[in-house]
Structures are given as C-alpha cells and as structure tokens.
Amino acid sequence: MADQIPLYPVRSAAAAAANRKRAVYYSAAGPGPGADRHSRYQLEDESAHLDEMPLMMSEEGFENEESDYHTLPRARIMQRKRGLEWFVCDGWKFLCTSCCDWLVNICQRKKELKARTVWLGCPEKCEEKHPRNSIKNQKYNVFTFIPGGFVLAVTMTREAIDEFRRFQRDKEVNSQLYSKLTVRGKVQVKSSDIQVGDLIIVEKNQRIPSDMVFLRTSEKAGSCFIRTDQLDGETDWKLKVAVSCTQRLPALGDLFSISAYVYAQKPQMDIHSFEGTFTREDSDPPVHESLSIENTLWASTIVASGTVIGVVIYTGKETRSVMNTSNPKNKVGLLDLELNRLTKALFLALVALSVVMVTLQGFVGPWYRNLFRFLLLFSYIIPISLRVNLDMGKAVYGWMMMKDENIPGTVVRTSTIPEELGRLVYLLTDKTGTLTQNEMVFKRLHLGTVSYGADTMDEIQSHVRDSYSQMQSQAGGNNTGSTPPRKAQSSAPKVRKSVSSRIHEAVKAIVLCHNVTPVYESRAGVTGETEFAEADQDFSDENRTYQASSPDEVALVQWTESVGLTLVSRDLTSMQLKTPSGQVLSFCILQLFPFTSESKRMGIIVRDESTAEITFYMKGADVAMSPIVQYNDWLEEECGNMAREGLRTLVVAKKALTEEQYQDFESRYTQAKLSMHDRSLKVAAVVESLEREMELLCLTGVEDQLQADVRPTLEMLRNAGIKIWMLTGDKLETATCIAKSSHLVSRTQDIHIFRQVTNRGEAHLELNAFRRKHDCALVISGDSLEVCLKYYEHEFVELACQCPAVVCCRCSPTQKAHIVTLLQQHTGRRTCAIGDGGNDVSMIQAADCGIGIEGKEGKQASLAADFSIRQFRHIGRLLMVHGRNSYKRSAALGQFVMHRGLIISTMQAVFSSVFYFASVPLYQGFLMVGYATIYTMFPVFSLVLDQDVKPEMAMLYPELYKDLTKGRSLSFKTFLIWVLISIYQGGILMYGALVLFESEFVHVVAISFTALILTELLMVALTVRTWHWLMVVAEFLSLGCYVSSLAFLNEYFGIGRVSFGAFLDVAFITTVAFLWKVSAITVVSCLPLYVLKYLRRKLSPPSYCKLAS
C-alpha cells in the first residue's frame, strides 16, 4: 500500500514563490482589512503545520487554504479594467454569466427548512405552507415518459408496467383512511390529506401516516409500543411516552378546550433525536414540558399496543422516513452501456461507408439523395433488433433465477440488470439480520475472580435461589422487615463479599438495568383496557414475551429468568420482579437514561419499595465504562478475551445514592431537560456528575448467531475477487466481533481501528498512521468517516480500497448510500449492496445491483431491491452461476446480433460496388424481414441457453469469476474480431455467388441468400459452447422454415426490382450444381473459422476449458 503513495513530498519552489507573491500583495494593501487578512493568513499557515506532511495531495491542494478563497478573487477584481473598455472586453460576459447564475439559483433553489410552532388541532394557524402528506416512489412523470420508437416498445412496456405498479402501491398508501379529531368529533381523512397541526387517531397495528408528537393513549400507563422495523431496521418494539399534560386530561374532547402548542425543531434526517417543547398557555402558571425522541411517533412505524392520538408536526417529504430515503435511480447495466458504445461506433461506420460510396460515385447528380439511399441500404449495420433480443434474454435469465431449486424464494424485481451480477467488484453488506440471525444468546458471566459459561449456569441458579431464600427467612424472622437488610447493606463494603452475594448483586443489576417490557397476550374474554388488578394478572411464563429496543437486552432478561429472577411487570414508573420462591419484589423507576451512540451506555435509578434504598445502575461498552468504575485489574483483559470469542460484551456497575443526593440531582436534571440550547450537552453533563467511582459488578457476554453458511459464502466471494465492506448501524465493538467470527477478517489479518477524529488535523495524522499499515482490515465509525470524507475524500477512498476488508459502524442510512456512491465514482467498478431492513433501502437503491433479504426486519429492503433472496448464502450461487451465465450469454447474443447486421451490409456494399456504386437494394421486402426474424431468430436467441461452465464447476472454482470483472467477453477487441468475421464472410458469400454463377447471373439473389442463411446457422453452432436440446430444435426449425418458404418467395428472388423479370426457378434450385456451389460458398465462409477456433482451443485455452478437461 505504502509503495504506491509518496509519503512525504517536500514543498515545491513554486509553492514558496506563491507565498512570496502573496506576501507582496498583502504588504501593498497597507493597514486595514488587507493587513488583517495577512495576519490571519500567517496564523493559518503556522497552524497548518500538518501540511508539512502532505497526504497524497498536490502542493496546490495545500496552498489553497481557506484564506486564499477569501482574498485571491478579490485581488483579481481590483485589477479589472473599469468603464467602457472593461464592458466591451469582459463586462458583458461577466453580466451575462451573473444573470444566468441568478436564474439558475432561482429555479433550483431548495426550500429552507425551519423550526415550527404547531397549534393543537388548528392547521390554519400555520404561518407557512408545508408539503402534502403523500408518498411518491415513482421514477417518471408524464413528460419524461415520451415514447422512443417502436423498437423500444418491449423495454418501454416493461418500464411502464413497473411504473404503474409503483403508482398503485403509492396510491394504496396515500388512500389509507385515518380518524382525525375535530371540534365536531371524529372524521375520516385520507393519509395524503393530513396537515401539520391535525390531531390524528391511530389504532393498534395501523401505520403512522406522518411525524407526530404523542399526546394521548388508551393505555393506563400513558405509554405505548411501536414497531420501527421499516424505519431503522430494528425488529424490537420501542416504548413511547405520551405528553403528561395531555395524557392527564379527563376526556379526549378536552384537547380542544385547552390552548396549547408544540415547538418543534426544523425537519432533519436524524431518526434517533428530537428537541421540542410543549406549552399550555391557559393554565396558571403556563405549563412547559420538554419533548424528546420518546415523545415522538415517526411516520412508517406501526402502533403495537393501544390507540394513540398525536399532533402532526411534519408531513410528506419533511418526515424522517422520506428524508432518509434516496430517490430511486433508473439503473442501466454496464453491458448495456458497452453495447451502446459499440452501436455508436457502428453508426459512425454506417455514415463513413455511405460517404465513401457517394465519393466513389463521384458526387454525380443529386449526391445527397444518393447519400440518404446508401444510409437506408446499409442501415442493417445498426442492430435494431438488439434491444428486443436482449430484453427477451434478460426475462429468460430472471425466470431461470426464480426457478432455481438451489436458491428457493428468489425474486427478480428489476429485469434490466441480470448481467450486473457477473461484473461485481465490491459487495457492501449490512450486518444485523444479513450476516447474523439477530438472535442473541447469553454465553458468559464474569465476576472478576470467577467466570461462568453455558455449562455452569446451574451454579448461578442455586446461588440466586439460596440468597433469596436466606433474605426471605431474615425478613420473616423480624417484624420491622426493612431495617436489618439496610444495616447489612451499609456494612457490606467493609468486608469482602462472598461469591453468592456478588452473583446475587450482579443478577439483580442485570434484571433491573434495561429498557425491557414484559408483554402478555390478552386472555380470552378480555378486550380493550385490562380492568383486573395487578395481583390478578396472568404472570405465567408461557404467556409472557419481552420487548426492547435491543435484542441484547432481551437476551439478558431471558437469562435472568432462566436463573430464577424474573421480570414480570413494568410500566413507566415501576417494575416488578419474581424471586425463585414466587415472591414479587417492587421497584420504583425514578429516572431512565437510554442508550445513545455518543454515551455508549444506559442507566437507571430505582428505589426498592421494601427498603426505600435508591440505587443507580449502569451498563455499557467497556470503553465507556472503564473510566467510570472503580480501579480493577481484570476488566480490559477479559473484554479482549470475550471479543476474540465473538461475544458482545457489556460492563455492569452500580452506585448507592442517599435521598439528598438524588433530590439534588433531580432538580439539576429537570432544569437541563427544559433548555432549548445545547440541551443534550447539558443533560449529559448532569448525568456524568453521578457517573463517578461506580462499583463494578460483572461483565456479560452475549453471542449474535451467524446466518447459515455465512463463513463459506464470504470465503467464496473473497476467492472470486470481490471486496467485502460491512456497513452497520451497530456499535464498533460488536461490528468488530462479527467481522472476526464471520471470517470477514481472517484470523491472521491485523485490524486497524481508526480512532475517533473530529477535525482535519486529527484526520490527517490518523490517515498517515493508517497508511503505514500493510494488508490490514479497516474498522471506522460513521462520525470519523464523515470527517475524513470532508477533508480527504480521495485519499481515504484510495487507502480503503486497498484493504482486504472494511467495516464501517454507526452508519446512518444516508451514509451507507454515500459510501456506495463514493466507490462508484472513485473506482469506476460495479457495486452490489445487500441488506434486510428499511435502513438499507437507500444503500440498495444507490448500488449498481441491490439485493434484499426477506428477514425478521420486514420486507421493505426486499421490495426496494433489484433481486430478493431468502438467505445470505444464496448470494454465492446468484453471482457465481447466474451472474456468470447472464453476462456471458448477453455478450455472445449482443455481438451475434451485430454480426447478423454487419454481414448482410457487407454483401450489400460488395453488390453496390460491382454495379458501379449503384444505390440498389440486394434483398427486398420479406427477405429482409425474414432474415432478422423466422430464418435466424430462434437459433440466435437460443444462445441464452448456452453455458461455458457447469454450475457445480462455477461454485467449486470461484476464481473463474475474476475473469468476468475484466470485461473480456465484450470489448472493442472482441467486437473488431466479429467485424472482421462479418467482412470476410460477407465478401466470400457475395463474390462467391458472382464468380460461381456467372452464367446464371439472374439467380444471384437466391444463391447468395441461401448461402447466407446456412452460414448464419453454422455460425450459431460455432459460437455454442454447451449444446441444449432446444438449440438443436431451433437450428432445424429455422432451416425447415426457410426451405418450406422457398415456394412462396419467387417474386422476391429477382435482382433489384421485380420488373427485372427474374423469378425463382424451382427446377433450378433442385439441381446438383446449385446445391454443391451453395455448399462450397458456405464451407469457404465457415470452415476457416472452425479451424481457427480449434487451434485456439488447443494452443491457448481459456481457464474454464482447463478445468473442464
């Protein structure tokens, strides 16, 4: 890697000269703004000491600092001439350019997004116009769908059908009815008619139509669950909380009796954050409530529990889901682009040949009329039927993929690009649900001195049972109940805790510190809201399921249930646990600090209702927790050990709080949450004041199980020369674990973890450090990636492309799509994106070839993709077998269709040359139509059944795939070979017919046409590599069609026009002379090519032939 890039080029003399010139200019400016700029320039130049170590950039790249952009254009303007001379010389250009730029800016100006105040139930109070709440996934409008001609009818019909289906899907979504709350009661409105400020009621299992603030719910707890799999790709339910002020109102209609509004930040793409305030003006004093992400209901999510009422704050293209979806592009395959280039070359050849003919005529008479005649005569050079043949071929390839029993459930949604599957160089894959099953299993608990694995979980179970039975007997032995345990707790740190008590503390922390809610299926006969008391609820194990925002948390709570401590109930303010003996322990939830990508940890403050103790529990990644917990000598080492096993690690800690400490914290925390400026920073600062010297309890290890056959599939793709990049929204540590366990990164390879960078200087130093590494995989976070791409886009991509594997973690949906686009722009290679969630849609649509997996995260990815498969392992056969066959077959088919047009045009050129360059057609009417259709269509199209390698061989030797990416099956070299073959055969056929039939010249048309048909059929046989029974049928069918039609073609076998009087003589074509002479011409045109093919196979066989032999 380092050998290809100069490490430390010194500054050039030209750069120094530029500095001197700049210094002269600034000193000439004298005191004032110029001098200020000079001093600022000097400061920037001094601070840019990093540029002494340039990063693969030209010297100009470093000379042009920001100061240059401010000053140099101004210097040029000062030197401009003024007055009439200036206007005549340069001014008019300057004014015209300025006017044009102004018009372009006016036309292309994007609407500026602003924060908004939304009055509840009063859309008419909105100060500005907001977009309609409709969805549009269509690619065209009426004006862009103008027909391009009859030949393109097949392509256009397919596109029109696809577009109509998209229109119907959009119409279906936009026509969904919702209940809108008005002063007069509920009214039904279409989704597309919803406005900002409307109060919308959404029932259980109904899609949320627009971005809303959650005001009320039918659930007594004041909260509800929503499913977000179509928004962020996560299958777990999210807990959302209603605004307390509106939830407390006695009735639904009271929403119109209060004067309240919501202040919402401007629309933005981040689906994980929101800042706003709810204000009720008619109370004394006015009520102000801070709003965060937990008070929002984003569009495209599904209500999973209860009925919700929300006020609409963003609609249409301003919703989070639409802002995170890129516009679908019309994908064109590389093979189609290559054939287009060859067709342009053929068009130039057509014009050149026509001009040559007119020139050789001597430009006599109305030469331009002759030129157009020749253009029409030689128009068969342009393969008009190529598009129809290819489109029909693509349909066949798609049908073969869907019928392949080895990859059941495969669906081809975009039939225009099957050849792309055979040209891929970069595969960008999602992690969760694509490489992994998204099923977490608890594997390891480490307490510092002792570690428990899957085979020793029964020991933990007995320790938990013993400790709770002991506590219960202590509680039963005295009447006060709460006092002795508190005394025991306060004295506990003074003595070394027993293993049993440490296990008890660890399990208790794990079962309390989470965001999991147990959900019970409603029992028969109970509808609507549950009216029975807590004690009567059905807490049976088989009736309970857990819901959380992370599958890791569900795995932890399921594990605590297996060892005896069960989470049985939870709402916004309380939590109930069941001990092994069946006793229910109640805890009051005082505060909850959810997990964020910045903090990498989550926390909870609970009060034990039996003892009134307040405890702050926290769990998170080791990098975030190490500075927070008390000093220890084992955490870092054990985290490394677990990571090497491919486990996701979480560090669990706790801290006891007094009532005074908590009250002080709560007042500061509430104040920080109401701030509208830098709210997140202030809140984080208050929480961090608690996170000091916490007691380390345990380290947990959870395994995310891989999909079936992921390792061999990745190995196969790597051997095929495909570079794999993993783009995930997951944590850096988790992504690194999966990269190792899936063998995306081999065990012998080093991993370079790109450290967090926030500015240009840090990015520069880190890139230089990375450049010195050889053959190592790169792991980088989304934030650092953003900084690198801002300052060193070209350099970063160049370095990353040389890595055997790249892992990008904490990627947003738009970042994933941006990485795909970068690879396309910088490498010019074909990219493929594969994912299974709604967060992968942008990436799938941006890639040259998008593959969606139908999985637990819904069908959004598979519906948006070009190809849909059931499992990741199916991608191996899709690329190695179907990708290879589609590309090879289309390349052969395309070139053969071109050959078919070139050979008949060559014959026409020879014929015209012999007749003193007369613009007279050789073949007329049905002969020309029949030549391109029934006489040659079936054999030529049967090439879509050809295959050079058996599927088993292609899967066994993925290295064969590397040759495909070089594009050797269709190139200017192969094209020129076919052109030469066409010229040779066309010349032989025409001259042979003229030489051998000098005495029967009137029959030259019948003779040459018969030889032409036979030659084409033999050429198909020459091109075929593996015979299929349908190919043989096609050959004989075409020959039979020609022979049987001879009786009806007598009027077409005259020379030039029918009035020449030369008609087909049936007796003549049955003579031995006719038959042997036609055979002789055909043999001379084809035999040398068969000999050359045989010699080439013997002397320089292609790689697949060596394997087959």
From TrEMBL:
Its EC number is 7.6.2.1. One of its GO terms (biological process) is phospholipid transport. ATP binds at D430, K431, T432, E553, F595, K619, R648, T728, G729, D730, R810, K816, N839, D840. InterPro entries: ATPase_P-typ_cyto_dom_N, ATPase_P-typ_P_site, ATPase_P-typ_TM_dom_sf, ATPase_P-typ_transduc_dom_A_sf, ATPase_P-type_domA, HAD-like_sf, HAD_sf, P-type_ATPase_IV. Its cofactor is Mg(2+). The active site is at D430 (4-aspartylphosphate intermediate). The keyword Membrane applies. PANTHER family: PHOSPHOLIPID-TRANSPORTING ATPASE IIB-RELATED, PROBABLE PHOSPHOLIPID-TRANSPORTING ATPASE. This is Phospholipid-transporting ATPase.
